Amino acid sequence: MSTSHGYYIPHKATWPVMVTAGLFCMLAGFASYLNGSSSGATFMLVGFAIFIIMVAGWFTLQASESESGTYNTQVGISFRMGMMWFIFSEVMFFAVFFGTLWYTRNLSVPWLGGEGTGAATKALLWPDYETAWPTNGPAHLGGKIVDGKTSGEFEPMGAFGLPLLNTLLLLSSGVTCTWAHHGLLAKNRDQLIKGLIATVTLGFLFVLCQATEYHEAYTDMGLTLGSGIYGSTFFMLTGFHGFHVCVGAIILSVVLFRSWKGHFKPENHFAFEAAAWYWHFVDVVWLGLFIFVYIM
Amino acid sequence: MSAVVAEHDEHHEHEHDDHDHGPAKGWLRWIITTNHKDIGTLYLWFALVMFFVGGVMALIIRAELFQPGLSFVEPQFFNSMTTMHALVMIFGGVMPAFVGLANWMIPMMIGAPDMALPRMNNMSFWMLVAGIVLLSSTLFMEGGAPAAGWTMYPPLVLQTGAALPFAIFSVHLLGISSIMGAINIIATIFNMRAPGMTLMRMPMFVWTWVITAFLLIAVMPVFAGAVTMLLTDKFFETSFFDAAGGGDPVLYQHIFWFFGHPEVYILILPTFGLASTIIPVFARKPLFGYSSMVYATAAIAFLSFIVWAHHMFTVGMPLAGELYFMYSTMIIAIPTAVKVFNWTATMWKGAMTFETPMLFSISFVVLFTMGGFTGLMMAIAPSDLQYHDTYFIVAHFHYVLVPSAIFMIMAGGYYWLPKWTGNMYNEKIGQLHFWLSAISVNILFFPQHFLGLAGMPRRIPDYAVQFTDWNMISSIGGFIFGFSQLLFLYIVVDTIRGGTGVKATNEVWDGALQYGGGGTQGLEWTLPSPPPYHTFTEPPVIVPTEYQH
Ligand code: HEM
Ligand SMILES: [Cu+2]
Fold this sequence. Notes:
The complex is a heterodimer.
Chain A: H1 15-34, H2 40-67, H3 73-112, H4 119-124, E1 145-146, E2 149-150, H5 162-185, H6 189-221, H7 228-260, H8 270-295
Chain B: E1 3-5, H1 10-14, H2 28-32, H3 36-64, H4 75-110, H5 118-137, H6 163-191, H7 204-235, H8 249-283, H9 290-303, H10 319-347, H11 356-379, H12 381-387, H13 391-421, H14 427-453, H15 468-496, E2 504-509, H16 512-515
Antiparallel strand pairs in B: 1-2
Helix pairs in contact in B: 3-4, 3-5, 3-15, 4-5, 4-6, 4-8, 4-13, 5-6, 6-7, 7-8, 7-9, 8-9, 8-10, 8-11, 8-13, 9-10, 10-11, 11-13, 11-14, 13-14, 13-15, 14-15
Protoporphyrin IX containing FE (HEM) binds next to helix 8, helix 10, helix 11, helix 12 and helix 13 of chain B.
């Protein structure tokens, strides 16, 4: 239905229910898998497939509606507000893990070592434990495997090898993304497409480097999810970030594909903007990670 | 009786044959709908069903506590009931009820054709259903439903059986649902208001909801993060909440309550909005201190982020922390008192009538104030060392949830039922429902203050014999309250089917048009009852009303 002032209100929606069904199936399957059920993984994969197909269908519909001029400026503003507040919710999600890092480093680990009100904790529980960071805790959890057993020894991740390279990769991808946007605004499709190709490539390169880093951590450094609080915060923060980079790169690939097909105009390119905002958000989170996880 | 009785509504018939499409045919309508009224109806019915499901759990709890000893259920199952009762009522009952009211009313109150993002609106609802189905499925699992309390503190919660990952993923789904719903409400309110509906002319219900939506977007991801860490601690070897690995179980409590305290305001701010919308209509006076209501709401929302550790006074915090959280919590009483003052002042010298919505609203003002006072008592850290984890807490939060949030949801239901259905509900039965509820809720929860002060701990299936008398009284009150709610169900069904046979006018309540908005006419009352499937496809002309600041 188009109202007189042109607000587009779709009649019915089949995709959203199906997306939900896919997600439900995936999570129920994952939960059963964690509980050791043999069919859990199958359900999870089927659910994931449904989810992906339905999201793709939904977005294809949105794209074609957008290209056929169904949406007016007001609808465009609604979409942008939606994206902005979605990103804000993601900021809060990351804030939890940054907060966890801050709390453990500055409060709970020192308390375990006897600082503040922790004197009794130290004396009674772990008299030998000295406050330190990085740490895998008083029980020296995880660490390198020696003779088939964990040794409690691990190496923390340095900042100036791959992580520094990754910082450069992501920062330049932010630049190429903006360059592509300028191309779009200047009706320079060639620049738009080249900029997007560069951005997506840099994004996937980042993921590749991160994978290499993880591989090294697990095989050579004894640094795993199980290496106490350092390993937990390290992998949780960088892992969720890496996942977001993957998602962002996939979104940008879709935007690239649409640019190829001739979509987007200087005055109508919400999908591009949303993808770019998301990408910059992922970028900023990385800077936070680089400083608080790797350097400090 | 001040309801304006319709002879016949002239405009009604004509507005039906406009160009708009109606709903899809058959049951499929309810699955694929994008219409804000349909989705509002879905949410409201869902909430009502969950209210009864959660109610049955509450009655199991009260039956077990009727006398000391283990009478009916296993202790483990008892603990599952307290946990599931809270989760079902909060995430399945109260929150969806408010989202349902928001869906139905916000577009009509601000003169918008629908919600800003209708497809996502549909998905929010189904995510909610998916989340609650996942949660309920744990009742039938090995090891039973989660039993560590709705706060899910580790390490206890990590001993949950097969239910744990299901409960965690259900929190994720419910979180996604709430966040999408909140985003939609914000986009609607900021982008869809009719020309002339300035922010400071919006009805208070709209104001409180937009602030609630900010709270939701800010804290639901925090809860999701907390339970994600529970998941990885249990299944992926992390040690966030395990001191042996350098983590800290108290950290979970901080994160949980950083979510949890704003969450309780998510439950109460729309309640405030309903009271601020309904009381002026039946007092036939503009809301006293409209702008101070807006600022007080914003202040409460802001403060709700910086007081969380008042739930953790006994857990072990540096003294500076205890003091800080004690004082910051007490400050909340100031904006809250502003609100109570304004509601009272609105009624002062008003031409009041006492239909069911107003009765519920007045009892809300009184009983909420009681809950606020006990809150203030518990905010005093040294006193809370005595109150914490006793029935006193249970009494406190039930006063601010049942005779407050739930009473105002009921009030909103009675207030708008004639608008939604076009029929008047049975006022006599409505008032009977009110009196039974208002009296029994006090029989149910007031004695729990005494039990708590005398030291009866919460979340236990058995207790020392000296607590018997008050527990018996409380249980009796509980059963009266529970069964009285069937009257509400009856009224809703009866009204949909024609009610008293009296057709509702557009305005329904004498004064609704004039006092039922914020700084304008109450827009929903300019529409026919029931409103056509699509309303305000043309933005309405906004008539500002005089109101005092
Ligand atoms: C003047 C306002 C309020 C103050 C000062 C206040 C203070 C407190 C304090 C200090 C506690 C912790 C007690 C303890 O566990 O030892 C508490 C618990 C609680 N409050 Fe309030 N409160 C206020 C209003 C509200 C409102 C409006 C709601 C909800 C609508 C609410 C819901 C709760 C709940 C659910 C708990 C218990 C959580 C649990 O442990 O399961 N409170 N309140
Ligand atoms: Cu609180």
